[in-house]
Amino acid sequence: MHPTDLTPFSPPGTDEYAAACAAFQLAAPVDPAGAFTARSVGDVVRAVATARRAGLPLRVHTTGHGMGRAAPVAGALLLRPLIDAPVRVDPVARTARIPAGKRWSDVLPAAVAHGLTAAHGSSATVGAVGYLLNGGISFYGRRFGVAANLVRSITLVTAAGEVVVASAAAHPDLFWALRGGGGGFGVVVEVEVALVPMHRVVTGMAVWDAAGAATAGPAWQRWAETAPREVTTSLRLLNVPPLPTVPPALAGRRILVLDGAVAAETPADVERAEKVTAEMLAALPEPEFSTWAPAGPETLPLTHMDPAEPIPFRSDTLLLRSLPEAGWAALLDAAGRSELLSVELRQLGGAFAEPAPDGGAFQRVGAPLLYWACGLPGERTEADLAAVRAALAPYATGFTAPTFADHFGQPQRTYDEAARARVERVRRDVDPGGLFAGDVAAIRDR
């Protein structure tokens, strides 16, 4: 088919093509046959019709943080839905309607203005809709569970070009599968999500030299096993680059960082949140310094120091059982010999572990720990990631959390065989011709 027959998709070499292909993950090739930025639901319907008529696969992305998670886009048409509509918060119902393409930085100001927040991720630049559809592991998660369980309805354009609203009351099987099923159901143009009350958070970071990890790591795990639900934390070994934007006390060092949040949903909860924070820090060796303090919930996406600008990276992830002494020794040995930028263990448990009565395909995380590590693309990073994975292999559950998987070739099992069979039945029903098949996450064990 001649490229002019692919309207509204723009061909390579055009500004429109480049804008539609822009992705946060710079290490993943983005080279479709044509690309289009949809600004309305009508645009999406038109794009789906074009792809169906041309007989070409249709791939969908917004911010491109997870661009490497699914198969390469070469030979497909790429659709970027950036719907020109505001985030609409209903403070009485405590919900937000989020159009496709909005980032958490668009959602949080609208929610916080009403004393509410969302179970958002650790970065404000991540697309809210993609995060929610892929489960969502939040620093509020031990209190409220997997973020996808808070989704109330999903509006999408199917392969047939129909605009469908899926919820617990309408198209319930599709609604179930969309929440963590791994993609390939259509083009989601809006998500309605429940918000939660949040007056303040106690958040910040405590910092040690990496040499203290052998003591601080196991102490953190012991504390985490019985920690109250309102706290969710992350422990990371960081190789801090010597950049002008990095504080001199940290630049060029390897450090251990504990960050996260303690939720204070009402003014009366602030004192307890501060007490929980003090008890947490008292359970660990004395840090070099700590910035943990009460703050507005709008500041939480800054806590984890995720990069705001697109970068190339390679990463790996596992869900883990608790680490024994030998496990900590193996992890710290492999991480200590690596050049990885970050080696992270995130605290799970609490509401993360509990199935939701009306939850989706990915609705709980049974493991107590989530591992994630990253580095700059290259042979050394691949070898370092393999070494850390080998050290942690005896404690791996065989499952992953979908928003943390970064590479199509990685293991990405996120649910059991019964859920997998149900997801695939729904996918066949809604997209029998496989128009969106390239967007399906690779569900494999190894």
Automatic annotation (TrEMBL):
Domain named FAD-binding PCMH-type: residues: 28-198
PROSITE patterns on file: FAD_PCMH
Keyword hit for Oxidoreductase: yes
Keywords of this entry: FAD, Flavoprotein, Oxidoreductase
Entry cofactors: FAD
GO MF entry, a single one: oxidoreductase activity
SUPFAM superfamilies, per the entry: FAD-binding/transporter-associated domain-like
Gene3D superfamilies: 3.30.465.10, 3.40.462.20, Uridine Diphospho-n-acetylenolpyruvylglucosamine Reductase, domain 2
Name this polypeptide is given: FAD/FMN-containing dehydrogenase
